[in-house]
Amino acid sequence: MIVIALASAAGGPRTWIHEFPHPRLVVHYHPNTGQFRLAELKSALEKGVNAVELDLHLRESDGKVVCNHNGATAQSPTLAEALDVILAKKGTADTVNRDGRQFFVVLEPKQNSPRLFDAIAELLTEYQAHLSTAVGPTDKPRGITAVITGSYTTRFYAHFKPDVINRLCITERHNYEGEITNLSKGKPCINWVSIRHSRTAGDDAKRVRALHEGTDPALPGTFNVRIWDCHKDLAVGLATGADSLNCDIDEIEVLHKMLKNRVTIEAAPAPELDALFARTSGWIGADGDYSVPLGENRTLWLFSDTFVGDVKEGKRVGATMINNSVAILQSPSPTLGERGPRGVGKPAEFFYKTGQDGRPASFVTPDDGRGYFWLFDGIMTSKGLYMFLPRVEHSDDSPAFPFRLFGMRLGHVPKPSGSPLDWKIAQRDVPFSRFERDRSIFFGSAVTKVGSEVYIYGLDARRVGEPAERRAAMIVARVPEDEFGDFGAWRFYSSGEWTWNWENCDRLFEGCPTEYSVSYVPGIEQYAAVYTEGGIFGNIMVRFAPRPEGPWGEPIKAFDCPDKRWHEKAYSYAAKAHPELATSPNELIVTYATNSTNFPDLFDDARLYWPRFVRLIIAGGG
Fold first, then answer.
1. Cα-flanking dihedrals φ and ψ of residue 485, to 5°?
2. pLDDT for position 8
3. CB under 8 Å to 451, separation ≥6 — which residues?
4. Which residues of the chain form CATH 3.20.20.190?
5. pTM, full prediction
6. Scanning 31, 54, 333, 608, which has its CA 20 to 30 A from the CA of 451?
């Protein structure tokens, strides 16, 4: 084939790609029923699609490449005619939709035919002046990228010399690292892969993340991901973080509307907030990190395991660990609502007890002397402060995590004024708790107030299957604020209703860790559940819901905690939000902690085991 020989001789072994920025989601139209007509293509283009997929056959009667799902017919438009329609839409503009965004022509050879492969390549060569892959090292970006998809991608790519075919198209499932030089601004990923929508909740999101991060065991490299066969699950597909979604002609406008309302998150560390808790003597780090606004510009911070000692030359020295502590953070300006925007003032003031031997001791201890308390979330009500006190004791079941929860108490301080060391904390067992080998149920992981009601979130964790796998899900109860301390007034979300059935609460979403938060984000008028993926995997995840009980969308990865890479056995966890620190309706301030299963790391590296702050800016969803 003369065109291929000339391209190889002129271009040499090196090729480039220069694209315009990709759409934040590629709306991908695939006509896949009946006889394809150019009128359908024109209609899809007018609706603003960012990609068109064309099923290709070689028509034996005239040797032309034609477009149709089920086979070549006399009425099938040619690929050249289809490309001309796309170029007519583009006109003299740089991009097809005249929006400065890349457009994708996705081609699926429906036959494993070298003749068809050659004919596709020959036709693309005729249009290479418009293709982003046919540029030289000094050329400007071009607005169309051709992508080969389908069952024969590997055979299609192998049929040609790389320096030839790489000037014409991108082939799905192929990693172009080291093959094509990316000239595009910001160097976006140029590899593509398509996956079929899974009907199992969460599977698509996990696969998309793995392909984005280069950790998918079946496909080395990082890839843009297109999901097909979503249809009625377009919203689920959108929430996976995929780069492209297939849709039918009647779904294009629906998907555009969803995209307009899509929530996006920008995250950045907030070291100025870290500084509020930075100390070199006394309280020198903790995890847990819940916060409860008390009113009068005071916020109570609740910590679990806590170091007390000194920090010298980057190490903890003379340090001891106690089971819990608290702090008061004073704000210089009043809140704008129960948990709304406020400023932050001077560094936090920390509180813990001193034992009879003069050594640091936990802020609160069980009144029956069994085990110890960590501190979970709480709420300030008209009847005082309530806070959840999970009961913990030593366990040899896991050497890396030598503890177990065996109960939940509710602490009550009628008037939490003055120094926390002077508070009298009444303790009562929460009756809606169950701690067994194969199943645990408890409430207190997160608390949020909505009007006159308080929602109390918890966890239902079960061991299922062989070998046994732990599956934990969010559950929720609610109670009028003025009756928070009356367990008889609590109701539980079960079978879509608020009932007494606390042991069979609806599992609102799977993969929920022990600690998390639920907060209202006024800028998008939705509730945000913030947690750490897998509990200890160091990715801060956010799900959104229109109501406190859900339905909850698919998880969005908001932030990758860098601390988890500081040591071989380090892990980041306990992510949760503190909406009282937000300074705008679209902001959410989040903390996390970083620990290590090698306990000496916590002494040798004093950077570990502090509240680390991240600022999330959340947009869309309106």
1. -80, 0
2. 37
3. none
4. 19-262
5. 0.64
6. 333
What pLDDT score does 286 carry? 96
Please tell me what DSSP assigns to residue 69: S
Between CA 198 and CA 203 the distance in angstroms is 6
Is residue 106 a contact partner of residue 28, using CB atoms and an 8 Å limit?
yes
Sign of CA dihedral 357, 359, 364, 370: negative
| DSSP secondary structure, 198-260, as one string | PSSTTHHHHHHHHHHHT--TTS-S--EEEEES-GGGHHHHHHTT-SEEEE-GGGHHHHHHHHH
pLDDT at 380 over 70: yes
The helix (H) or strand (E) run that includes residue 313 is: none
- Residue 332, pLDDT score: 54
Per-residue pLDDT tens digits for 179-218:
999 999 989 999 999 999 987 757 888 899 899 989 999 9
Decide if 445 contacts 458 (C-beta within 8 A): yes
Q: Exposure of 59 by Cβ count < 10 A (0-12 exposed, 13-18 middle, 19+ buried)?
A: middle
Name, in order, each residue with C-beta under 8 angstroms of 418's C-beta and a sequence gap of 6 or more. none
∠ Cα 615 621 622 (to 5°): 120
Query: CA-to-CA distance for 388 and 371, rounded, in angstroms?
Result: 15
Q: Which two tokens stand for residue 145?
A: 């990228």
Q: How far apart are CA 504 and CA 501, in angstroms?
A: 6
Q: Determine the Cα–Cα distance for residues 465 and 401; give it in Å rounded to an integer.
A: 23
- Burial class for 412, CB neighbours closer than 10 Å (0-12, 13-18, 19+): buried
Q: How many CB atoms lie within 10 A of CB 260?
A: 10
107 within 8 A of 151, measured Cβ to Cβ: no
CATH homologous superfamily for 19-262?
Answer: Phosphatidylinositol (PI) phosphodiesterase (3.20.20.190)
Task: Note the pLDDT tens digit of each residue in 315-361.
Answer: 999 999 999 999 999 875 433 333 333 445 678 999 999 999 999 99
Based on the number of CB atoms within 10 Å of its own CB, is 336 exposed (0-12), middle (13-18) or buried (19 or more)?
middle
- Phi (first) and psi of residue 117, to 5 degrees: -60, -45
Supply 143's token pair: 């607005």
Please, which contacts does 415-419 make with residues 24 or more away whose CB atoms are closer than 8 Å? 415/384, 416/294, 416/300, 416/380, 416/384, 416/385, 419/351
The share of the chain scoring above pLDDT 90, in percent, equals 77
Averaged pLDDT for residues 77-89: 98
Say whether 501 sits in a helix, a strand or coil: coil
Buried b (16+ CB within 10 A) or exposed e, 220-253: eebbbbbbbebeebbbbbbbbbbbbbbbebebbe
Which residues, including other chains, have CB under 8 Å from residue 264's CB and lie 6 or more apart?
Answer: 24, 618, 619, 620
Structure tokens at 22: 């990709």
Cα dist from 79 to 69, 116, 164, whole Å: 13, 12, 20
pLDDT of 6:
33
**pLDDT band per the 50, 70, 90 thresholds, residue 172:** very high
Torsion of CA 417, 422, 423, 424, to 10 degrees: -140
Indicate the DSSP class of residue 504: G
Q: How far apart are the first and last CA of the chain?
A: 54
Point out which residues pair with 390 in neighbouring strands.
408
Question: Burial level of 214, CB count in 10 A (0-12/13-18/19+)?
Answer: middle
Per-residue DSSP letter, 20: P
